[in-house]
Amino acid sequence: MPLIQLHTYINSDIKTCFDLARNIDFHQESLKHSNEKAIAGKTSGLIALGESVTWEATHFGIKQQLTSKITAFDAPNYFVDEMVSGVFKSFKHEHIFKTEGNQTLMIDKFYFESPFGIFGKLVNKLFLKNYMIKLLTTRNSLLKEKAEL
Prior knowledge:
The protein is of the alpha+beta class. This is Cell division protein.
């Protein structure tokens, strides 16, 4: 299963960063380019343990839906969202926050598995992993920008 791991240093307190990362409204704002919208479950505000959200977005020119659920939660240090249904065979996204001096280190660990066996593994290597890195990096840049205001 591929793993994407990103480290983002943010000049803001840990609670602000943690709350932005789990904010449904901010998530939609940060992924406007894919027309991402929360359409079911928790559709606004801060998502918490046991809650789920269904997202609708356009990726690769195809409108898709994906439902994820918060399966672990330790404010303001850690939370996990995992796919319940959607286009991936599976995914798990760990969000880790650490205070380092006057900054917050935000660590993303995104594990994913594509459907379609060998073909899915080829898709991962050819473009999906890079696409997901770009998507997460864009979101993290906007989170950093907003948290540092």
